[in-house]
Amino acid sequence: MLSANAEQRANIKFLTKLGKSATETYNLLTEVYGDQCLSRTQVFEWFKKFMEGRKNVGNDPKSGRPPTAKTPENVEKVARIVRRDRRLSIRAISELTNINKESVRQILHDDLGMKKVCAKVVPKILTPQQKEHRVNCCVDTLENIENDPDFFQNVITCDETWILQYDPETKRQSMHWKSPKSPRKKKARMSKSKFKAMMIVFFDIRGVIYIDWVPEGQTVNQVYYKNVLTYLRERVRRRRPDMWKNASWVLHHDNAPAHNALSVKRYLAKNNIPVMEHPPYSPDLAPCDFFLFPKIKSALKGTRFESVDAVKAKATQLLKSITQDDLQHCFQQWKIRMERCRDRGGDYIEGDNISTV
């Protein structure tokens, strides 16, 4: 059975044989088919074709790529090209493979399970030796946890960070729901405040133990850090009497110059404070960096405080409001991160989804 359009083209062919003009043909078709009639341009084009001797009333075959481009051969072809250069655009892959862009997109997303992402910014491109060191540190700590399930109960971790008087909210934080007719929210471009304060935080799985606000203009050097550790010991004695009595607590800090200074190491050894080793360039394995500081700073973003003292007070309030459940989850994630680092040969773990392509 002919389609509606093919039927009209057959009638155009018949009317040309009757000697009708193009205008007469269009008028007759309009009279019969009404709103379903071909357009005047289409009628005149087909009329001309039949007058020139065309016999077929069907559509001309379409040139270009075949309609079914998602064949196993094409999937493999796209996969090979992407493996060679993962920065190619869909348009470039389409031109290289002679496959239409929509089929390339479907092959990449549906068949290969791929998506285009930006490169992950990491602290450093690690050498094989640095990766091995990360693995060894993780293995040693995981062995301690296996031998002593309460190992993390005795770990006190710390780090320093800057707290800004004003830090603009992120683009994601400013997202909001809007209806089709409601206006889109707008915000002015803002810069980070130049006024800031440095905070040193010590916490364990039970809560924050000590917060030190570094005086303006003071550098956290070995002398200052030793003084901070002296205050920390007093806080441990008062807030963790069980750990103080048993001398069971372990200090975890990163490899900042002040932390690794010889005088600091002697101070810790003199006071029988063991240190949990932390691999260099590894913020992804530091609880302050992957949990505590992002949590605090996210809550402060977008708020303009009247003074540095005001932001200090708010940051301190936020630190004290962190629940023990949050901290237990943090230490659980710390263990999981070490396991992932070990299993991945020391590579950075954040933002990674291992792909088979």
From TrEMBL:
GO terms for molecular function: nucleic acid binding. It holds the Pfam family Transposase_1. It comes from the Eukaryota. Residues 9-53 form the Mos1 transposase HTH domain. Transmembrane segments: none annotated. This is Mariner Mos1 transposase. It comes from Cryptotermes secundus. The gene is KCTD9.
